[in-house]
Amino acid sequence: MIEVLAARASWCVPDEKILWCHPLTRASGAGKFILYTVPGLDDWGAQKPGVGRKALVAATGVAALVLEAALGGGDQGGSAPSVPWTVLMGKRRDCLAVSCLADWQANGGNSSSRDDQELFWVLTTHRLGLLDFAQRGEGGNADSSGLLGGLKKSIGSVFERAEEPQAEKEPQLPVPLVCAEIPRNAITSVEVVEQKIQGRDRHWFKVGLADESALLVSDWKKSHERAFFDRMLAMTHGRE
Description:
With 240 residues, the chain is of the alpha+beta class. It has one domain (2-236). The chain has 7 helices and 9 strands; from the N terminus they run αββααβααββαββββα. Strands 2-3-9-8-7 form a 5-stranded mixed β-sheet. A 4-stranded antiparallel β-sheet has the order 1-4-5-6. Strand 4 and strand 5 form a beta hairpin. Helix 2 packs across helix 3. The radius of gyration is 19 Å and the shape is globular. Residues 59-80, 137-142 and 151-164 have low confidence and may be disordered.
C-alpha cells in the first residue's frame, strides 16, 4: 500500500512502526467522514444551538443523555441516514476524542467536498494518526506537523530528491498531511465489537481513550466479517 510507504518515509520517526493503515471512507448518503454521537454536538460535530448540556441533564436525566449519545439521536427526522464508517462516541463535547479532532473539524474536514481527498487512519507504536495523502505539491501550505515534531523529511527535501538521477526510478509518493493525532498513552483499550448505530448493525474496531470516549472504525466492504477486525486487533498487538 503506497500510503504505508509514504507515511513511513515522511511521517514516522526512526523507531516508529506502522501497525495498520485503514481508509476513512466518506458515507455515500451523508457525504461525511465521521458521525459524532456526543451530547451537545450534532451528527457531524457542530455545536447544537439552544439547549445546553446542564439543562438537558436536568430535564431528562443522565441516563437518557448517555442513551442519546450512544444512538446519535435527535437529528434523524424519522429516517436513518447513511452511517459513516467512523463513529466518535463521548459523554461530553470537550471529551478527548472530540478535542483531538477539533482543528480538523473546525477547518471543515468533516464536510470537505474534495474529490481527491484520501484520508486514512494510521496506527503506529507511537500514535494514531488521521492523515490526508494529498499528491506531491498539493499540500504545501497545509500544516504537516505532528506530535513528534513534524515530518521526518521536509516537503522541500522530497522535491530535492526529484532532481537526483536515481529519482526517476523511485515511486511518486504522496505527501501525508496530518489532520489529527492521538498519542498511544491516551489509548487505553482496543477491541472488536458488534454494535448497532442508528439502525445499522456492524462490526467495529473500537479504540477507547483515557476519558472513556472512543472511536469506532468499520469498513464498507468488511463490516460483517469478524475475521477482518480480528486481524486488525492482532496487528495492533504486533502479532501479524
